[in-house]
Design a protein that fits this description.
This protein has about 270 residues and is mostly helical. The protein has 2 domains: about 160 residues, HUPs (Rossmann fold, 3-Layer(aba) Sandwich); about 80 residues, no CATH class. Helix content is about 55%, strand content about 5%. Strands 1-2-3 form a 3-stranded parallel β-sheet, covered by helices on one side.
Length: about 270
């Protein structure tokens, strides 16, 4: 299968780019015919500085190569290096009306936020359509919500920085939080408020409560003598590992964590009863 996707160099690549798009690209290049381009023409709708445009394009290429994009497996190029794209854009513009273009989400969204619309922004959907006439399949990645619970975007300044997450939650908790929301190959949305909710509900009240209660029991009784394992408990743990393996095999990392959350809930309930 042929798959086409592009990545805008409107700023530094961030977690949203990686989890919602780049990881998919790495998977697709192994099993499909991937066509990947740096969409520097697309980014002109928000990025006007030519020097910054050049720098961002160069850095985006380096980042993708460093993350595993292989030119020997993937057709990889910079959009502006293919002049036919803008030529086809002109031809396609003759087949659409201005009233139809005014319905485009990108145009309505940016004008609603106070952006001064350019003709390029208005014609943006035509440029997107011009990228794909020779391909049979189009790969469109989803997005993650960023600071402010709106679409994560470099131009909006609401990108989630890994270092900031680590400063707030610590490195281990950050890894847990990212994987708890991330489902490989599917759209995801995250925000700082969702991180706090997940941290308090699952890590503090789930893991934290179980660890605290276990330590309290151990310290209160001194030496704990292990008795024969309860069959119900043993069955639950075996099922947990079975479901965990299946989730990891399918790259459903969030489901794998949910499996352990269910086990933790079972353990807390088990302690209450015993």
């Amino acid at each position: 299968m042929r798959i086409l996707t592009g990545l805008q160099p409107s700023g530094k690549l961030h977690l949203g780019n990686y989890f919602s798009a780049i990881r998919k690209m790495l998977e697709y290049q192994s099993n499909n015919e991937l066509f990947l381009f740096i969409a520097n023409l697309h980014s002109l709708t928000t990025l006007k500085d030519p020097n910054l445009q050049k720098s961002n394009t160069y850095n985006a290429v380096l980042d993708l190569l460093a993350l595993g994009i292989d030119p020997n497996k993937t057709v990889f190029w910079v959009q502006s290096d293919v002049p036919e794209v803008t030529e086809v854009t002109w031809y396609l513009s003759m087949a659409i009306t201005t009233s139809q273009l005014s319905l485009a989400h990108s145009f309505k969204d940016k004008t609603a936020k106070g952006f001064t619309p350019s003709a390029g922004l208005f014609n943006y959907p035509i440029l997107m359509a011009a990228d794909i006439p020779v391909y049979k399949n189009l790969f469109v990645h989803g997005y993650w919500l960023g600071w402010g619970d709106v679409k994560m975007s470099k131009s909006l300044g609401n990108v989630i920085e890994p270092d900031k997450l680590i400063d707030i939650f610590g490195s281990d908790a950050t890894r847990y939080l990212l994987f708890s929301f991330f489902s490989f190959g599917e759209d995801c949305d995250i925000s700082l408020s969702k991180f706090y909710d997940e941290y308090n509900a699952k890590l503090a009240n789930g893991y934290g409560n179980l660890i605290s209660r276990t330590l309290t029991l151990a310290l209160g009784k001194g030496e704990i003598k292990l008795k024969k394992v309860d069959k119900k408990f043993e069955k639950k743990v075996s099922a947990c590992w079975r479901d965990y393996d299946a989730s990891m095999e399918g790259l459903k990392f969030n489901q794998a964590l949910e499996v352990f959350q269910a086990l933790i809930a079972f353990c807390n309930e088990y302690i209450d009863k015993k």
